Amino acid sequence: MPNQTVLISGASIAGPALAYWLNRYGFAVTVVERAAALRPGGQAVDFKDGVHLEVLKRMGILDAVRARRTGTTDLVFVDADDHELAVLSGDFTGGALEILRGDLAAVLYEQTRGTVEYVFGDTVTALRETESGVHVEFESAAARTFDLVVGADGIHSRVRRLAFGPESDFVTHLGYYYCVAGASRWADKSAPRERAEGYAHNVPGKMAVDGGAKAQQMYMFASPELDYSRTDTSAQRRIVRAAFADVGWHVPRMLTELDELDEVYLDSISQVRMNGTYTRGRVALLGDAVYGNTLAGFGTGLALVGAYVLAGELASAASDHEAAYRAYNRIMKRYAKIAGNSNTGPFLAPKTAIGIKARNWFLGSRLFGLMLKYGDKAANDVDLVDYSRSARNRA
């Protein structure tokens, strides 16, 4: 049967999730990942109640994810003297179920490693579509041809660049950068999973977080686009130190410790805007590569729902990948609206002192509660089709 072989670029969350479902439906799947191995640790990601947890349940990994869940971390905003100003509840930032990104990737990998081909330490360098497939060239391995290719390789997707065009055509910089450094407290498996607190301090256009769920340290600051290498952690540390050199509170001590921390990651707060067209020819995009919105809070759930829908539609359409892609575009264009046009930067790091005071007031107001309810409703605004019959038909 045609369309049996699928190459997925990216082995973080979206890629292995798609690999799981495609393999279950009888496809032969290869996952290529630029990193030499799975990335451990990482920041915390979360799922909302309802649809997100149902997908985990259908994958058979809900219990495994729950077993590795983090605790709940409230983010306490304080002034320069550590006086509490406002609290961002961990029940909001952590959703119904929170887990470190690396732990989730490990769960997904364990579900698929025995039946899916994983190629670490390599990446796609060229794509050429033919009448019968996609000829793929790699940085290290020999070229191969696949029936379909899926880019699940993040907001800076190489597959998107090769198949659709330059990043600048699809990724919009939202005026802020963020940096996470050091492992979250929850990376310590011996730590009790209970409620904890992280502390955040603002000056106009900047926020520094000491502790918390995301990492040992977190920084956010307003900035035009910067020219730096995302693989050069020394350069990233220099950028953070320069941006926060004039900030008091705990920041001088945090910057001193920054050189000793591992897992330093600096990136822009950006949004991918594809206008609802997530496929081209035999190539499809999934997860942050196509509906990413940095720190918006829905990315991981979108990735898992998107993987479920894409695989299910491919199984239902048998050899007609064009029909499957049309259905995937239609369903996910509507659902991906939950990522919206929101920008976490101005909310967490307002550019004025008045903006900071207004944000603190908002966190304690009824309006914030209404926003939480809207987010929960939007996260469940999709019908999960039961694709199990498609799996039986392909078996």
From TrEMBL:
Domain FAD-binding: 5-319
Pfam families in UniProt: FAD_binding_3
InterPro entries hit by this protein: FAD-bd, FAD/NAD-bd_sf, FAD_aromatic-hydroxylase
Highest taxon in the source lineage: Bacteria
Xref: SUPFAM superfamilies: FAD/NAD(P)-binding domain (SSF51905)
GO function terms (MF aspect): FAD binding
Annotated protein name in UniProt: 2-polyprenyl-6-methoxyphenol hydroxylase-like FAD-dependent oxidoreductase
Originating species: Nocardia ignorata
